[in-house]
Amino acid sequence: VANVGRGFRPPNIFDIGTLGSRPGNRFNVPNPALEPESVWSYDLGIRHSGARWEFETFAWYADYRDRISSRFTGELTPEGRQVVQSDNLDKATLYGLESGLRYIAGERLQWYAVLNYTRGEEIEADGATGPADRIPPLNGRLGLVYQPLDALRIEPWIDFAAKQDRLSSRDEDDPRIDPDGTDGWTTLNMHLVWEPTDRYSFGLRLENLSDEAYREHGSGIDAPGRNIGGWFNLVF
């Protein structure tokens, strides 16, 4: 499977018109003259589906132009905040791998795995290069689906992410991101689904059973601790 794509993103009202304090001791002023960002994207992969094994692997590459970034104007507010303005300053290249695997062990048992890797480079207006903003670390999922009864499905899985300490200068100044990087983490989770008839089903979702303290890279809040949720579906 191969694909070539062309896309663009017009500046939104936040890009154009933000006026006020921003994280990292900054003060943003509007820029109504912003141009759209644009991107060329390419991916190449292979898919296979058999009686026992299913898998897919894709390599991808994205070339961004006219990226909207914050530019320091050199001015300071009376409170000492650095005045910044959004502008079409940078270019960026992002590339990586996305893969998935499923093994059908039998009518009632399946194993699956997902693994993703991304790397990004940003080229600034003066030609300097460095890491792109908020690039996710190596991450993935490993789980199984077990159906001991026709009406009952049990799905435990593990979500994980490696440490991300390859930060851009804006990441390092962002109070949502530790200057030393975001620690890796692993969570244990489970789905329980009971479907006695085609008309209704009950579900239970258990997440972060080990009560791991972690944060998604680039997020402004810590992830929830141990939690539970349930649902009931009725078709009529």
H-E string: EHEEEEEEEEEHEEE
Question: Which whole number gives the mean pLDDT?
Answer: 92
**Any idea what the shape is?**
globular
Q: What's the gyration radius in Å?
A: 23 Å
Rounded to the nearest angstrom, the distance between the terminal CA atoms is: 40 Å
Q: How many helix segments? A: 2
Q: What is the β-strand count?
A: 13
Structural class: mainly beta
Helix content: under 10%
Ranges where pLDDT stays below 50 over 5 or more residues in a row are none
DSSP strand content: over 45%
Largest sheet: 13 strands, mixed
Description:
The protein has 236 residues and is mainly beta. It is built from 2 helices and 13 strands. It has helices at residues 13-17, 169-173; strands spanning 2-9, 20-22, 26-29, 37-49, 53-76, 82-106, 109-123, 129-131, 139-149, 152-161, 185-194, 200-207, 227-234. Strands 1, 2, 3, 4, 5, 6, 7, 8, 9, 10, 11, 12 and 13 form a 13-stranded mixed beta sheet that branches.
Question: Which characteristics define this entry?
Answer:
single chain, mainly beta, 13-stranded mixed β-sheet, 13 strands
Topology at a glance:
Blueprint: E1 2-9, H1 13-17, E2 20-22, E3 26-29, E4 37-49, E5 53-76, E6 82-106, E7 109-123, E8 129-131, E9 139-149, E10 152-161, H2 169-173, E11 185-194, E12 200-207, E13 227-234
Parallel strand pairs: 3-6
Antiparallel strand pairs: 1-4, 2-3, 4-5, 5-6, 6-7, 7-8, 7-9, 9-10, 10-11, 11-12, 12-13
Short description:
This protein is mostly beta strands and 236 residues long. It contains 2 helices and 13 strands. The radius of gyration is 23 Å and the shape is globular.
